[in-house]
Write a structure and sequence with these properties.
The chain has 232 residues and is α+β, with helices and mostly antiparallel strands. The protein contains 8 helices and 7 strands; from the N terminus they run ββαββαββαβααααα. A hairpin with a 3-residue loop joins β3 and β4.
């Protein structure tokens, strides 16, 4: 299997669906396609982050690699918000663990078979995540010298906010994470366009201003590790 060259550090995002066994058989059968769809959107909207194709395993587990660690929180929140937004009768939520550090190798066709500190930290963070949490981060010792010691606390606060989002709030936030203006988000609204005022209300209720500030802080911290452009 071809292995891509590695320019460390990288970010590895590892996740699984919350209470997937409680979802209906129909929804569970569609999960791989839903995850691939959101993964494709990440590739389109955050190309500058250097995302790998999403790798799906066990039906409800997923993993992807970002060549630019600074984009990790923005992409993670996009993944979670977009997944929540496309939920219908049954809400689909994902736990996500971010691992930032070195990589020994990354198979091009199956990133979940990669290895290195970033992979191990991401997997460890997901395994040890409290059942009431949906977001966590682990950074290797070398990378942590960038001044990111307070990030677990910041992510815990973001997690408390995002878990309360409604599907409409999540959809509005997914557009804001792409850097779209409120008018643009409203024009792309599903299933039909809505006004800028409606988008403003959804974003305010979602606590977007605080989330946006945290994302900007995260990008500032990790910018020295590589370009922080995220395609927005």
């Amino acid at each position: 299997m071809p292995k891509a060259s590695v320019e460390s550090p990288i970010a590895v995002l590892t996740g699984d669906i919350v209470s997937s066994t409680s979802l209906s058989k129909e929804v569970r059968s569609r999960l791989p396609d839903v995850l691939r769809s959101v993964g494709t959107q990440i590739g389109e909207h955050f190309e500058a982050a250097g995302p790998s194709p999403i790798d799906i395993f066990r039906g409800d587990g997923w993993q992807l690699v970002l060549r630019r660690p600074a984009a990790a929180l923005r992409v993670t929140l996009y993944f979670q918000s977009r997944l929540h937004a496309i939920s219908s009768a049954e809400t689909i939520l994902s736990r996500t663990a971010i691992g930032i550090g070195s990589a020994d190798f990354i198979p091009q066709d199956s990133v979940s078979e990669g290895d290195g500190a970033a992979f191990r930290l991401s997997g460890k963070a997901l395994e040890e995540m409290d059942r009431n949490r949906q977001l966590a981060i682990e950074v290797d010792d070398e990378t942590s010298s960038c001044g990111c010691q307070g990030l677990p606390t910041i992510l815990a606060l973001i997690d408390a906010v995002t878990k309360r989002w409604t599907a409409k709030q999540a959809l509005a936030v997914s557009g804001a994470l792409r850097g779209l203006r409120q008018e643009q988000i409203g024009s792309e609204w599903e299933p039909a366009p809505v006004t800028q005022q409606a988008i403003a209300q959804h974003l305010e209720s979602a606590g977007w201003s605080a989330v946006e500030e945290a994302v900007a802080h995260f990008e500032h911290i990790f910018e020295p590790l590589g370009r922080s452009e995220t395609g927005h």
